[in-house]
Each structure stands twice: as structure tokens, then as C-alpha cells.
Amino acid sequence: MAAMGGATQSAQPERPGRTDGVAGEFTVFCRIKPGHADELREVLDELMDAMGTGDRAALRQIGTLHDARHVIFDNDTRFMFASVFDGSWDTYIDDFATTVVGERFDRVFSHTEGFPGVKDPNVKEWFVAQQEPALVFVSSYPDLTVKQIWKDQRVNEAFQAVLDSSEFQAALENPANKELLASPAFQKLLDQAAG
Predict the structure, then answer these.
(1) What distance in Å separates the CA atoms of residue 6 and residue 82, rounded to the nearest whole number?
(2) What kind and span of H or E run contains 44?
(3) In terms of DSSP bridges, do strands 23-31 and 65-73 run parallel, antiparallel, or are they unpaired?
């Protein structure tokens, strides 16, 4: 593959999956080992229960996973994992092996045919062989990473606390701040906070 327009070639091989800004999609379809569907369902139920109790430490540890779905289908013979992440495909897969998610992935995918284990040097090739790229992939926030979204959420919560404080209300009523409060920038800030 020749580089075009002076662009440098990536050291990483080309990977399947579409991107929209910083967000990428990852969808794999696997065959469930015969007789393993109920065990797989139990593992997935445990994962869902952990999420329901607020155990999101694994998500914070990776810091690039926007969302994920696990689906058993075709009369308990096939399994789909689909997710949206930010960053490179290879880093995303590497993160599975270096975080607590790796242990969870091993538990889930051990019920699928041919899975070598998340720390196996051939796991990326296995995922590529199972992956089916989306025909259409669109992100509502293509320029925001998960970490940026988390930061935006923290800043918004802090800003809302300021807006609700008695000190802020007193500043709004202070005639010395009249010019600042009337400025287009401040009005835009208030409009955004209300919206």
C-alpha cells in the first residue's frame, strides 16, 4: 500500500471497522461452543449485575470504551460483542490484556470456538477473523474521547453547583457586576447552562 499525498504509513496493520472522528466501532460474531450457551449467559448475567451495582472500575481503567453489547442469538449457537471505543484498534485490544477487562473477556470468550485467550500473541488475528465491520457507523460526539466526556461531566456538575450557590446569586444582584452580566459571552454561558 503506497502512502498518498505525503502521508506517512501507519506502523499498525490496517484493521477492520469504521471510524467517525475519534470513535471506532468493533463488532465480532463468534460460534458458541456446543453446550456452552447457558454458561456464557451466566457469565454475562454476572457482568450485568456488576454494572448494575455501580462496578465501573474496569471501564475507568480502560478509559476508551464508550459502550458495549453482548448478544447470544441463532438458537444459542452464536455470540456477538459490539462496542464503540476511542483511539486505535490495536491499543483497544491491548487494553483488554492489561486491565481487569482481560479476565472478564477470557471468561466470556472462553465459551466461543477457537478463542486463544486475551493475552495470547494471536488474539488480534482471532478478533480480526471474527470481526464484521459496520456498513454505517455514526457517533453523536465524534470529536470527544471518553476521558473528555468524563471531564466535561465533572466540569458541568461543578459549574451547576456554582450557579445554584447563594454566592453566585448575590454576584448576579451586585450592581458592580452589571457590565459583565450584560456581556454577550456571559449571556451565552448562561444560555448554554440553561439548555
Answers:
(1) 34
(2) helix 37-52
(3) unpaired
Per-residue pLDDT reduced to its tens digit, 14-26: 788 999 999 999 9
CA-based angle 125:127:150, to the nearest 5? Answer: 125
Q: Please enumerate in sequence order all residues whose Cβ is within 8 A of that of 174, keeping only pairs 6 or more positions apart, or say none.
A: none
Residue type, 2: A
Residues 6+ apart with CB under 8 A from 40: 32, 72, 79, 108, 111, 112
3-state secondary structure of 137: coil
* 3 state SS of 188: helix
Report the chain's terminal Cα–Cα distance, integer Å. Answer: 48
Quick count: other Cβ atoms within 10 Å of Cβ 123? Answer: 21
Contacts of 127 (CB under 8 A, 6+ apart): 28, 93
- What pLDDT was estimated at residue 112? 98
Q: What residues pair up with 119 in beta bridges, in sequence order?
A: none
- pTM score above 0.85: no
Give the separation between CA 24 and CA 162, rounded to whole angstroms.
Answer: 35
97: nearest Cα among 75, 69, 119: 119
- Give dist(CA 168, CA 161) in Å, integer: 10
Closest CA to 41 of 75, 8, 7, 71: 71
The residue assigned the cell 450592581 is: 175
CB 30 within 8 A of CB 115: yes
Looking at residue 176, its pLDDT comes to 87
